[in-house]
Amino acid sequence: MSVRVARAAWARDWGAGCRRGASNFPLPPPGAVNVAELLRDATAAEEGPREAAARRRRPPGQCSVLLFPGQGSQVVGMGRGLLGYPRVRELYAAARSVLGYDLLELSLHGPQEALDRTVHCQPAVFVASLAAVEKLHHLQPAVIENCVAAAGFSVGEFAALVFAGAMEFSEGLHAVKIRAEAMQEASEAVPSGMLSVLGQPQSKFTFACLEAREHCKTLGIENPVCEVASYLFPDCRVISGHLEALQFLRKNSCKYHFRRTKMLPVSGGFHTRLMEPAVEPLARALKSVGMKEPLVSVHSNVDGNRYRHPKHIRKLLARQVVSPVKWEQTMHAVYGRRKGTEFPETFEVGPGKQLGGILKSCNLQAWRSYGHVDVLEDPEDDGT
After folding, report:
1. Of 29, 108, 226, 272, which has the fewest CB atoms closer than 10 Å, so is most exposed?
2. Residue 332 pLDDT more than 90?
3. C-alpha span between 374 and 379 (Å, rounded)
4. Which phi and psi angles does 368 have, rounded to 5°?
């Protein structure tokens, strides 16, 4: 068995890990099967240095990359198109044990207002994305076997790390639960939000944020926050901060050469210092996670670079909450290559196609090999 087959075996192993990992929290269960360890053992036993080197030299056109979406992609009905595939219901049952509520019911039937709450949508997107990987493994197993890299947007990074074997499912979901609860609490402390801004080459994002903060000060807001929270693609940013600052930017969008602005369906000013109260609870949760080196390359939102050591994963996942998501930089790191070199197949696993749209704007050639795993349609009607 090669490492490709070992990596495909993750779908068999995680079910057992989830079932044994079902327990009461706040701490992850002490006896949980570690998917990362199972994959690592299989890899070590079956693949020597020569085989590993040969796998790394595989032509890019024969490889695949998985992208995991983040908060804001949630929609009522997600998961409906996954339930006919092996182990998906087990996955949601395990999630219920970790979370203490029926995530599948909320995902399928809403209401949307409840699903949109940070405390719910982060676990919902996390689980739906990994369930979508199960569907992809069933329909196109070679995609999983030949995966060489993964990246996730914000909370999607946790799903990417679970897929890559860096952490076990129940531990990863527990960390997401703590993260979501802490971010929900932080967002309720200050009226804040996130604004998607499509600009132009002459757009002045930094200057616009500065003037928005100055405007907030005239309203009596102390230490106002307004800053870039996500780099999506050239001339497109997400700006987070106090609601008054975001309202100012929308009202004065022409002044800063913004072509279009849109408020995002999130409850707070994420990836700014407004989320500082969430850092310590998440860091504590991550300390209890049995972190391993990822078996495929996973790129950090904080700097766009590939994780190289488990201790860096804990450190950067905690920092990510208060740091801008450098997604555009991540796309360049994943897809940068010499002219004429083939691009890998890319699959977005989870609700929505936002990451595919961003990829198209970052790298049109890479996007031509893009596909999406639908989580909404019934299996018999889906053509994925």
Report:
1. 108
2. yes
3. 9
4. -65, -20
Let me know how many helices (H) and strands (E) the chain has, helices first.
Answer: 18, 10
Confidence bin at 26 (pLDDT 50/70/90):
very low
> Stretch 328-354: mean pLDDT, rounded?
94
Q: What are phi and psi of 175, to 5 degrees?
A: -65, -40
Helices assigned H by DSSP within the chain? 3-8, 10-21, 35-46, 49-56, 88-99, 103-109, 112-116, 118-139, 141-145, 156-163, 169-189, 205-218, 243-251, 276-287, 310-320, 327-335, 354-362, 364-367
pLDDT in tens, 360-377: 999 999 999 999 999 997
Q: Which of 120, 137, 174, 271 is catalytic?
A: 271
Please give the Cα distance from 102 to 167 (Å, whole number): 23
Under a CB-based contact definition with an 8 Å cutoff, are residues 304 and 330 in contact?
Answer: yes
Q: Which of 15, 44, 47, 45 is nearest to 32 (CA)?
A: 15
Tokens of 200: 């132009």
129, 154, 203, 230: which is the annotated catalytic residue?
154
CA distance 213 to 210: 5
- Reply yes or no on whether 271 is catalytic: yes
Average pLDDT, integer, range 292-302: 95
In angstroms, the CA 265 to CA 28 distance is 30
Q: Are 372 and 89 in contact (CB under 8 A)?
A: no
Residue 238 phi/psi, 5° resolution? -110, 130
The pair of three-digit structure tokens given for residue 368, joined into one six-digit string: 């031509």
For the segment 66-75, what is each residue's pLDDT rounded down to a tens digit?
999 999 899 9
Record the pTM: 0.87
